[in-house]
Amino acid sequence: MQERIKSILQMEPSDAIVRAEGWVRTKRDSKNVSFIEINDGSCLKGLQGVIDKASFDAALLDRISTGCSIVAEGRIVASQGGNQKTEMMIEHLEVIGDCPQDYPLQKKRHTVEFLREKAYLRPRTNLFGAVTRVRNTMAYAVHSFFQENGFMYINTPLISASDCEGAGAQFQVTTLDLENIPRQKDGRVDYTKDFFGRMANLTVSGQLEGETYATAMKDIYTFGPTFRAENSNTTRHLAEFWMIEPEMSFCTLEGDMEWAEKFLKYLFSAVLEKNEEDMAFFSSFVLPGVEDTLRHVIESPFAHMTYTDAIAVLEKENDRFEFPVKWGVEIQTEHERFLTEEVAKRPVIVTDYPKDVKAFYMKMNDDGRTVRAMDVLAPRLGEIIGGSEREYRYDVLVSRMKEIGLNPDDYWWYLDLRKYGTVPHSGFGLGFERAVQYVTGVANIRDVIPYPRYAKSCEY
Ligand code: 4AD
Ligand code: MG
Protein backbone atom coordinates (compact mmCIF):
# COMPACT_ATOMS: atom_id res chain seq x y z
CA MET A 1 0.00 0.00 0.00
CA GLN A 2 1.57 3.30 -1.08
CA GLU A 3 0.05 6.49 0.29
CA ARG A 4 0.74 10.19 0.62
CA ILE A 5 2.00 11.15 4.04
CA LYS A 6 -1.14 13.15 4.73
CA SER A 7 -3.21 9.95 4.60
CA ILE A 8 -0.60 7.88 6.41
CA LEU A 9 -0.83 10.31 9.32
CA GLN A 10 -4.56 9.65 9.52
CA MET A 11 -4.19 5.87 9.68
CA GLU A 12 -4.88 3.88 12.80
CA PRO A 13 -2.14 1.52 13.97
CA SER A 14 -2.38 -1.81 12.14
CA ASP A 15 -0.40 -4.76 10.83
CA ALA A 16 -0.60 -3.62 7.24
CA ILE A 17 2.71 -2.71 5.63
CA VAL A 18 2.60 0.90 4.44
CA ARG A 19 4.98 2.49 1.97
CA ALA A 20 6.04 6.12 2.38
CA GLU A 21 7.98 8.10 -0.20
CA GLY A 22 9.47 11.51 0.47
CA TRP A 23 12.37 13.64 1.59
CA VAL A 24 14.04 13.49 4.97
CA ARG A 25 13.67 16.71 6.91
CA THR A 26 15.51 15.69 10.06
CA LYS A 27 17.31 12.77 11.58
CA ARG A 28 17.82 12.29 15.32
CA ASP A 29 19.96 9.52 16.72
CA SER A 30 19.85 7.80 20.04
CA LYS A 31 21.85 4.76 21.06
CA ASN A 32 19.70 2.08 19.49
CA VAL A 33 17.27 3.89 17.27
CA SER A 34 17.19 6.72 14.77
CA PHE A 35 14.16 8.95 14.24
CA ILE A 36 13.63 10.49 10.86
CA GLU A 37 10.97 12.90 9.71
CA ILE A 38 9.73 12.24 6.18
CA ASN A 39 7.84 14.94 4.29
CA ASP A 40 6.24 14.73 0.85
CA GLY A 41 4.54 18.14 0.67
CA SER A 42 1.04 16.72 1.13
CA CYS A 43 0.83 18.32 4.56
CA LEU A 44 2.90 20.38 6.95
CA LYS A 45 3.69 17.66 9.43
CA GLY A 46 6.04 14.86 8.45
CA LEU A 47 5.80 11.19 9.21
CA GLN A 48 8.06 10.06 12.01
CA GLY A 49 9.97 6.94 11.00
CA VAL A 50 11.64 4.84 13.66
CA ILE A 51 14.71 2.85 12.65
CA ASP A 52 16.03 0.07 14.82
CA LYS A 53 19.74 0.50 14.13
CA ALA A 54 20.58 -3.14 14.76
CA SER A 55 18.38 -4.23 11.85
CA PHE A 56 20.05 -2.05 9.20
CA ASP A 57 23.42 -1.77 7.62
CA ALA A 58 25.39 1.12 9.19
CA ALA A 59 26.48 2.27 5.72
CA LEU A 60 22.85 2.67 4.66
CA LEU A 61 22.00 4.59 7.83
CA ASP A 62 24.93 6.93 7.21
CA ARG A 63 23.46 7.90 3.88
CA ILE A 64 20.30 9.22 5.51
CA SER A 65 20.67 12.95 5.89
CA THR A 66 18.53 16.08 5.68
CA GLY A 67 17.29 16.46 2.11
CA CYS A 68 17.80 12.93 0.84
CA SER A 69 14.91 11.12 -0.83
CA ILE A 70 13.84 7.78 0.56
CA VAL A 71 11.31 5.02 0.36
CA ALA A 72 10.38 3.50 3.69
CA GLU A 73 8.10 0.59 4.44
CA GLY A 74 6.76 -0.52 7.76
CA ARG A 75 3.82 -0.77 10.12
CA ILE A 76 2.00 2.17 11.64
CA VAL A 77 2.15 2.02 15.43
CA ALA A 78 1.05 4.28 18.26
CA SER A 79 3.84 6.73 18.97
CA GLN A 80 5.50 6.90 22.34
CA GLY A 81 6.62 10.46 21.85
CA GLY A 82 4.26 13.33 22.55
CA ASN A 83 4.55 15.11 19.21
CA GLN A 84 2.63 12.69 17.08
CA LYS A 85 -0.16 10.17 17.43
CA THR A 86 1.44 7.50 15.28
CA GLU A 87 4.77 6.65 13.71
CA MET A 88 6.17 4.10 11.31
CA MET A 89 8.37 1.25 12.53
CA ILE A 90 10.57 1.03 9.47
CA GLU A 91 11.24 -2.50 8.23
CA HIS A 92 12.55 -1.75 4.80
CA LEU A 93 14.45 1.34 3.76
CA GLU A 94 15.96 2.55 0.56
CA VAL A 95 17.82 5.81 -0.09
CA ILE A 96 16.85 6.90 -3.59
CA GLY A 97 18.86 10.11 -3.83
CA ASP A 98 21.66 11.00 -1.44
CA CYS A 99 21.96 14.56 -0.19
CA PRO A 100 25.47 15.81 0.61
CA GLN A 101 26.29 18.22 3.41
CA ASP A 102 26.31 21.29 1.16
CA TYR A 103 22.48 21.06 0.88
CA PRO A 104 21.40 24.67 1.52
CA LEU A 105 18.33 23.84 3.62
CA GLN A 106 19.94 22.45 6.74
CA LYS A 107 17.70 22.34 9.76
CA LYS A 108 17.41 25.90 11.04
CA ARG A 109 15.22 28.86 10.27
CA HIS A 110 16.20 30.60 7.08
CA THR A 111 15.24 34.14 6.12
CA VAL A 112 12.79 34.61 3.25
CA GLU A 113 15.51 36.61 1.46
CA PHE A 114 17.87 33.64 1.60
CA LEU A 115 15.13 31.29 0.45
CA ARG A 116 14.25 33.58 -2.48
CA GLU A 117 17.77 32.95 -3.78
CA LYS A 118 17.08 29.24 -3.51
CA ALA A 119 13.63 29.43 -5.08
CA TYR A 120 14.04 26.01 -6.69
CA LEU A 121 14.42 24.40 -3.25
CA ARG A 122 12.17 26.55 -1.12
CA PRO A 123 9.02 24.43 -1.64
CA ARG A 124 10.80 21.95 0.64
CA THR A 125 10.48 24.31 3.60
CA ASN A 126 7.50 24.50 5.96
CA LEU A 127 6.69 28.05 4.89
CA PHE A 128 6.68 27.47 1.15
CA GLY A 129 5.00 24.10 1.45
CA ALA A 130 2.17 25.80 3.35
CA VAL A 131 1.96 28.69 0.86
CA THR A 132 1.86 26.19 -2.01
CA ARG A 133 -0.99 24.22 -0.47
CA VAL A 134 -3.01 27.35 0.32
CA ARG A 135 -2.44 28.73 -3.18
CA ASN A 136 -3.64 25.42 -4.56
CA THR A 137 -6.80 25.50 -2.44
CA MET A 138 -7.52 29.05 -3.55
CA ALA A 139 -7.00 28.29 -7.26
CA TYR A 140 -9.41 25.39 -6.99
CA ALA A 141 -11.89 27.54 -5.05
CA VAL A 142 -11.77 30.23 -7.76
CA HIS A 143 -13.05 27.70 -10.24
CA SER A 144 -15.58 26.10 -7.92
CA PHE A 145 -17.02 29.47 -6.91
CA PHE A 146 -17.65 30.58 -10.48
CA GLN A 147 -18.69 27.16 -11.71
CA GLU A 148 -21.21 26.81 -8.86
CA ASN A 149 -22.60 30.20 -9.85
CA GLY A 150 -22.98 29.40 -13.54
CA PHE A 151 -20.06 31.46 -14.86
CA MET A 152 -18.24 30.32 -17.99
CA TYR A 153 -14.44 29.99 -17.85
CA ILE A 154 -12.84 31.89 -20.75
CA ASN A 155 -9.21 31.81 -21.86
CA THR A 156 -8.36 35.28 -23.09
CA PRO A 157 -5.19 35.86 -25.14
CA LEU A 158 -1.86 36.52 -23.50
CA ILE A 159 -0.50 38.29 -26.55
CA SER A 160 -2.58 41.34 -27.30
CA ALA A 161 -2.64 44.41 -29.50
CA SER A 162 -4.62 46.60 -27.08
CA ASP A 163 -3.69 48.20 -23.78
CA CYS A 164 -6.58 47.54 -21.43
CA GLU A 165 -5.47 49.66 -18.52
CA GLY A 166 -4.02 52.35 -20.76
CA ALA A 167 -1.13 52.62 -18.37
CA GLY A 168 1.55 51.99 -20.97
CA ALA A 169 3.19 49.44 -18.73
CA GLN A 170 3.33 46.68 -21.31
CA PHE A 171 6.01 44.22 -22.33
CA GLN A 172 6.48 44.21 -26.07
CA VAL A 173 6.41 40.94 -27.99
CA THR A 174 8.57 40.96 -31.09
CA THR A 175 10.66 38.74 -33.34
CA LEU A 176 12.38 41.72 -34.96
CA ASP A 177 16.17 41.62 -34.88
CA LEU A 178 16.93 44.22 -32.24
CA GLU A 179 20.42 44.72 -33.66
CA ASN A 180 18.95 45.57 -37.03
CA ILE A 181 15.49 47.09 -36.70
CA PRO A 182 13.57 47.66 -39.96
CA ARG A 183 12.47 51.26 -40.26
CA GLN A 184 9.98 53.27 -42.28
CA LYS A 185 11.12 56.27 -44.33
CA ASP A 186 10.38 58.62 -41.45
CA GLY A 187 12.60 56.56 -39.12
CA ARG A 188 9.85 54.90 -37.12
CA VAL A 189 9.96 51.10 -36.61
CA ASP A 190 8.34 49.19 -39.46
CA TYR A 191 6.09 46.79 -37.60
CA THR A 192 4.70 45.32 -40.82
CA LYS A 193 7.97 43.32 -40.79
CA ASP A 194 7.28 42.04 -37.26
CA PHE A 195 5.77 38.61 -36.53
CA PHE A 196 2.17 39.79 -36.29
CA GLY A 197 2.57 42.53 -38.88
CA ARG A 198 1.83 45.05 -36.15
CA MET A 199 2.98 45.96 -32.69
CA ALA A 200 2.00 43.42 -30.03
CA ASN A 201 2.35 43.14 -26.27
CA LEU A 202 1.85 40.77 -23.38
CA THR A 203 -1.57 41.44 -21.93
CA VAL A 204 -2.03 43.53 -18.78
CA SER A 205 -5.59 42.23 -18.38
CA GLY A 206 -8.03 39.91 -20.14
CA GLN A 207 -10.92 42.27 -19.46
CA LEU A 208 -11.63 43.71 -22.88
CA GLU A 209 -11.75 40.30 -24.52
CA GLY A 210 -13.65 39.01 -21.48
CA GLU A 211 -16.32 41.65 -22.11
CA THR A 212 -16.89 40.32 -25.62
CA TYR A 213 -17.73 36.92 -24.16
CA ALA A 214 -19.81 38.33 -21.30
CA THR A 215 -22.01 40.05 -23.84
CA ALA A 216 -22.81 36.63 -25.30
CA MET A 217 -22.51 34.16 -22.41
CA LYS A 218 -23.79 36.59 -19.76
CA ASP A 219 -21.42 35.70 -16.91
CA ILE A 220 -17.82 34.74 -17.54
CA TYR A 221 -14.49 34.70 -15.74
CA THR A 222 -10.86 34.49 -16.71
CA PHE A 223 -8.03 33.18 -14.55
CA GLY A 224 -4.62 33.57 -16.05
CA PRO A 225 -1.28 35.31 -16.02
CA THR A 226 -1.00 39.03 -16.73
CA PHE A 227 2.11 41.11 -17.25
CA ARG A 228 3.03 44.61 -16.23
CA ALA A 229 6.29 46.36 -16.87
CA GLU A 230 5.80 48.81 -14.01
CA ASN A 231 9.05 49.46 -12.30
CA SER A 232 7.50 49.27 -8.83
CA ASN A 233 9.88 47.74 -6.38
CA THR A 234 7.31 47.05 -3.66
CA THR A 235 6.09 44.14 -1.59
CA ARG A 236 2.80 44.15 -3.58
CA HIS A 237 3.88 44.32 -7.23
CA LEU A 238 5.07 41.69 -9.65
CA ALA A 239 5.83 41.96 -13.35
CA GLU A 240 4.02 38.64 -13.91
CA PHE A 241 1.02 37.92 -11.75
CA TRP A 242 -2.19 35.93 -11.97
CA MET A 243 -5.51 37.66 -12.16
CA ILE A 244 -9.11 36.49 -11.90
CA GLU A 245 -11.48 38.65 -13.91
CA PRO A 246 -15.22 37.97 -13.83
CA GLU A 247 -17.51 39.97 -16.10
CA MET A 248 -21.30 40.04 -15.69
CA SER A 249 -23.87 41.32 -18.16
CA PHE A 250 -27.10 43.00 -17.01
CA CYS A 251 -25.15 43.92 -13.89
CA THR A 252 -24.46 47.35 -12.41
CA LEU A 253 -21.83 48.44 -9.90
CA GLU A 254 -24.01 47.33 -6.98
CA GLY A 255 -24.11 43.77 -8.30
CA ASP A 256 -20.39 43.91 -9.03
CA MET A 257 -19.61 44.76 -5.41
CA GLU A 258 -21.87 41.99 -4.14
CA TRP A 259 -20.08 39.42 -6.32
CA ALA A 260 -16.67 40.68 -5.23
CA GLU A 261 -17.50 40.39 -1.55
CA LYS A 262 -19.12 36.98 -1.92
CA PHE A 263 -16.17 35.72 -3.95
CA LEU A 264 -13.49 36.85 -1.48
CA LYS A 265 -15.37 35.37 1.44
CA TYR A 266 -15.76 32.10 -0.43
CA LEU A 267 -12.00 31.92 -1.06
CA PHE A 268 -11.17 32.68 2.56
CA SER A 269 -13.67 30.12 3.84
CA ALA A 270 -12.25 27.44 1.56
CA VAL A 271 -8.79 27.94 3.05
CA LEU A 272 -10.04 27.94 6.65
CA GLU A 273 -11.86 24.73 5.91
CA LYS A 274 -9.18 22.86 3.96
CA ASN A 275 -5.89 24.19 5.32
CA GLU A 276 -6.40 24.22 9.06
CA GLU A 277 -2.88 23.03 9.83
CA ASP A 278 -1.27 25.51 7.43
CA MET A 279 -3.33 28.39 8.79
CA ALA A 280 -2.29 27.52 12.33
CA PHE A 281 1.31 27.62 11.09
CA PHE A 282 0.84 31.08 9.55
CA SER A 283 -0.76 32.32 12.76
CA SER A 284 2.18 31.04 14.82
CA PHE A 285 5.13 31.87 12.62
CA VAL A 286 4.13 34.44 10.01
CA LEU A 287 1.45 36.81 11.22
CA PRO A 288 -0.09 36.38 14.68
CA GLY A 289 -3.87 36.25 14.52
CA VAL A 290 -4.15 35.95 10.74
CA GLU A 291 -6.58 33.08 11.07
CA ASP A 292 -8.90 35.00 13.41
CA THR A 293 -8.75 38.01 11.14
CA LEU A 294 -9.99 35.92 8.23
CA ARG A 295 -12.83 34.58 10.33
CA HIS A 296 -13.78 38.10 11.35
CA VAL A 297 -13.68 39.25 7.72
CA ILE A 298 -15.93 36.41 6.60
CA GLU A 299 -18.48 37.24 9.27
CA SER A 300 -18.69 41.00 8.86
CA PRO A 301 -19.98 42.95 5.87
CA PHE A 302 -17.40 45.02 4.00
CA ALA A 303 -17.53 48.76 4.62
CA HIS A 304 -18.55 51.10 1.78
CA MET A 305 -17.36 54.62 1.10
CA THR A 306 -17.29 56.91 -1.91
CA TYR A 307 -13.96 58.32 -2.98
CA THR A 308 -15.19 61.79 -2.07
CA ASP A 309 -16.05 60.68 1.47
CA ALA A 310 -12.76 58.82 1.76
CA ILE A 311 -10.84 61.95 0.81
CA ALA A 312 -12.77 63.95 3.41
CA VAL A 313 -11.71 61.45 6.08
CA LEU A 314 -8.11 61.29 4.87
CA GLU A 315 -7.63 65.04 4.52
CA LYS A 316 -8.09 65.44 8.26
CA GLU A 317 -5.09 63.14 8.76
CA ASN A 318 -2.84 64.64 6.10
CA ASP A 319 0.07 65.33 8.45
CA ARG A 320 0.56 61.62 9.07
CA PHE A 321 0.92 60.78 5.36
CA GLU A 322 3.97 60.86 3.13
CA PHE A 323 1.66 61.90 0.29
CA PRO A 324 -1.04 64.29 1.57
CA VAL A 325 -4.34 63.95 -0.28
CA LYS A 326 -6.85 66.29 -1.82
CA TRP A 327 -9.81 65.60 -4.08
CA GLY A 328 -8.58 64.36 -7.45
CA VAL A 329 -5.38 62.58 -6.43
CA GLU A 330 -4.85 58.86 -6.45
CA ILE A 331 -5.35 57.09 -3.16
CA GLN A 332 -2.08 55.37 -2.30
CA THR A 333 -1.28 52.36 -0.20
CA GLU A 334 -0.69 54.38 2.99
CA HIS A 335 -4.17 55.91 2.63
CA GLU A 336 -5.77 52.59 1.78
CA ARG A 337 -4.22 51.06 4.84
CA PHE A 338 -5.42 53.93 7.03
CA LEU A 339 -8.99 53.51 5.78
CA THR A 340 -9.03 49.76 6.37
CA GLU A 341 -6.88 49.46 9.48
CA GLU A 342 -7.77 52.62 11.41
CA VAL A 343 -11.18 53.74 10.16
CA ALA A 344 -13.19 50.66 9.19
CA LYS A 345 -11.10 47.88 10.77
CA ARG A 346 -12.15 45.57 7.95
CA PRO A 347 -12.11 45.56 4.13
CA VAL A 348 -13.51 48.71 2.54
CA ILE A 349 -15.00 49.16 -0.91
CA VAL A 350 -14.30 52.64 -2.25
CA THR A 351 -16.47 53.75 -5.17
CA ASP A 352 -16.93 56.61 -7.60
CA TYR A 353 -13.36 57.73 -8.20
CA PRO A 354 -12.48 60.82 -10.25
CA LYS A 355 -12.43 59.87 -13.92
CA ASP A 356 -8.86 61.13 -14.33
CA VAL A 357 -7.34 58.50 -12.03
CA LYS A 358 -9.16 55.57 -13.62
CA ALA A 359 -9.23 53.69 -16.94
CA PHE A 360 -11.15 54.79 -20.05
CA TYR A 361 -13.75 52.02 -19.98
CA MET A 362 -15.48 52.93 -16.71
CA LYS A 363 -19.03 54.22 -16.75
CA MET A 364 -19.29 57.98 -16.31
CA ASN A 365 -21.47 59.23 -13.48
CA ASP A 366 -24.02 61.98 -14.11
CA ASP A 367 -21.75 64.48 -12.34
CA GLY A 368 -19.33 64.22 -15.30
CA ARG A 369 -16.38 64.09 -12.86
CA THR A 370 -16.48 60.61 -11.35
CA VAL A 371 -16.81 57.09 -12.70
CA ARG A 372 -18.53 53.95 -11.47
CA ALA A 373 -15.32 52.37 -10.23
CA MET A 374 -14.84 50.28 -7.14
CA ASP A 375 -11.67 49.14 -5.41
CA VAL A 376 -11.77 46.61 -2.62
CA LEU A 377 -9.16 47.56 -0.06
CA ALA A 378 -7.83 45.09 2.46
CA PRO A 379 -6.05 45.78 5.75
CA ARG A 380 -2.23 45.38 5.49
CA LEU A 381 -2.27 45.37 1.68
CA GLY A 382 -4.49 48.10 0.34
CA GLU A 383 -6.06 47.39 -3.06
CA ILE A 384 -6.79 43.74 -3.63
CA ILE A 385 -9.57 44.10 -6.23
CA GLY A 386 -10.14 46.75 -8.88
CA GLY A 387 -13.36 46.83 -10.86
CA SER A 388 -16.12 48.92 -12.35
CA GLU A 389 -19.34 49.16 -14.22
CA ARG A 390 -18.40 49.55 -17.88
CA GLU A 391 -19.32 52.44 -20.11
CA TYR A 392 -21.86 50.77 -22.37
CA ARG A 393 -23.08 53.94 -24.16
CA TYR A 394 -21.38 54.20 -27.55
CA ASP A 395 -21.20 57.97 -27.79
CA VAL A 396 -20.08 58.53 -24.23
CA LEU A 397 -17.32 55.96 -24.64
CA VAL A 398 -16.06 57.48 -27.89
CA SER A 399 -15.88 60.96 -26.45
CA ARG A 400 -14.17 59.66 -23.32
CA MET A 401 -11.53 57.93 -25.46
CA LYS A 402 -10.90 61.07 -27.44
CA GLU A 403 -10.69 63.09 -24.25
CA ILE A 404 -7.79 61.01 -22.95
CA GLY A 405 -6.05 60.67 -26.29
CA LEU A 406 -6.98 57.12 -27.29
CA ASN A 407 -7.78 56.52 -30.94
CA PRO A 408 -11.29 54.98 -31.16
CA ASP A 409 -10.23 53.20 -34.37
CA ASP A 410 -7.81 51.09 -32.34
CA TYR A 411 -10.75 49.84 -30.26
CA TRP A 412 -13.22 49.34 -33.11
CA TRP A 413 -14.25 45.85 -32.01
CA TYR A 414 -14.69 46.97 -28.40
CA LEU A 415 -16.88 49.83 -29.58
CA ASP A 416 -18.92 47.43 -31.74
CA LEU A 417 -20.09 45.76 -28.52
CA ARG A 418 -21.76 49.09 -27.70
CA LYS A 419 -23.27 49.21 -31.17
CA TYR A 420 -24.71 45.71 -31.40
CA GLY A 421 -27.00 44.88 -28.50
CA THR A 422 -25.25 46.86 -25.81
CA VAL A 423 -26.06 46.13 -22.20
CA PRO A 424 -24.99 47.39 -18.77
CA HIS A 425 -22.21 45.16 -17.56
CA SER A 426 -19.62 45.12 -14.82
CA GLY A 427 -16.62 43.20 -13.67
CA PHE A 428 -13.54 43.23 -11.53
CA GLY A 429 -10.03 41.86 -11.27
CA LEU A 430 -8.62 40.11 -8.22
CA GLY A 431 -4.85 39.92 -8.01
CA PHE A 432 -4.36 36.29 -7.11
CA GLU A 433 -1.03 36.79 -5.35
CA ARG A 434 -2.42 39.66 -3.28
CA ALA A 435 -5.24 37.36 -2.21
CA VAL A 436 -2.74 34.66 -1.22
CA GLN A 437 -0.71 37.28 0.63
CA TYR A 438 -3.76 38.40 2.51
CA VAL A 439 -4.80 34.91 3.53
CA THR A 440 -1.35 33.71 4.61
CA GLY A 441 -0.06 36.93 6.13
CA VAL A 442 3.13 36.61 4.06
CA ALA A 443 4.58 40.11 3.87
CA ASN A 444 6.20 40.06 0.44
CA ILE A 445 4.35 39.15 -2.76
CA ARG A 446 7.58 37.56 -4.03
CA ASP A 447 7.05 34.78 -1.55
CA VAL A 448 3.57 33.66 -2.61
CA ILE A 449 4.38 32.79 -6.24
CA PRO A 450 6.86 30.05 -7.18
CA TYR A 451 9.15 32.16 -9.37
CA PRO A 452 8.62 35.89 -8.87
CA ARG A 453 9.39 38.18 -11.79
CA TYR A 454 10.15 41.83 -11.08
CA ALA A 455 12.46 44.52 -12.37
CA LYS A 456 16.02 43.21 -12.70
CA SER A 457 15.00 39.74 -11.61
CA CYS A 458 14.19 36.81 -13.85
CA GLU A 459 16.14 33.96 -12.27
CA TYR A 460 15.17 30.34 -13.01
O1 4AD B 1 -6.82 47.44 -10.77
P1 4AD B 1 -6.31 46.65 -11.92
O2 4AD B 1 -5.23 47.27 -12.76
O3 4AD B 1 -7.60 46.32 -12.80
C1 4AD B 1 -7.63 45.68 -13.99
O4 4AD B 1 -6.68 45.17 -14.55
C2 4AD B 1 -9.02 45.55 -14.55
N1 4AD B 1 -8.90 45.21 -15.96
C3 4AD B 1 -9.79 44.54 -13.76
C4 4AD B 1 -11.20 44.36 -14.25
O5 4AD B 1 -12.02 45.20 -13.97
N2 4AD B 1 -11.49 43.28 -14.94
O6 4AD B 1 -5.79 45.24 -11.43
C5 4AD B 1 -6.64 44.37 -10.73
C6 4AD B 1 -5.93 43.77 -9.53
C7 4AD B 1 -5.46 44.80 -8.52
O7 4AD B 1 -6.50 45.16 -7.66
C8 4AD B 1 -4.35 44.05 -7.81
O8 4AD B 1 -4.89 43.16 -6.85
C9 4AD B 1 -3.76 43.22 -8.92
O9 4AD B 1 -4.73 43.12 -9.95
N3 4AD B 1 -2.54 43.83 -9.46
C10 4AD B 1 -1.30 43.36 -9.24
N4 4AD B 1 -0.86 42.33 -8.52
C11 4AD B 1 0.47 42.11 -8.49
N5 4AD B 1 1.38 42.85 -9.15
C12 4AD B 1 0.98 43.92 -9.90
N6 4AD B 1 1.87 44.63 -10.58
C13 4AD B 1 -0.42 44.21 -9.97
N7 4AD B 1 -1.16 45.14 -10.61
C14 4AD B 1 -2.44 44.89 -10.29
MG1 MG C 1 -6.46 49.15 -9.76
Q: In this structure, how is the largest beta sheet organized?
A: 8 strands, mixed
Ligand names: 4-amino-1,4-dioxobutan-2-aminium adenosine-5'-monophosphate, magnesium ion
Poorly predicted ranges: none
Question: Strand arrangement, largest sheet?
Answer: 6-10-11-16-15-14-13-12
Proportion in helices: 25-40%
| DSSP E strands, number | 16
pLDDT average, as an integer? 96
Helix segment tally: 13
* Overall geometry: elongated
| Class derived from helix and strand content | alpha+beta
* N-to-C CA distance: 36 Å
Secondary-structure element order, as H and E? HEEEHEEHHEEEEHEEHHHEHHEEEHHEH
The percent range for strand residues is 15-25%
Q: Could you tell me the radius of gyration in angstroms? A: 27 Å
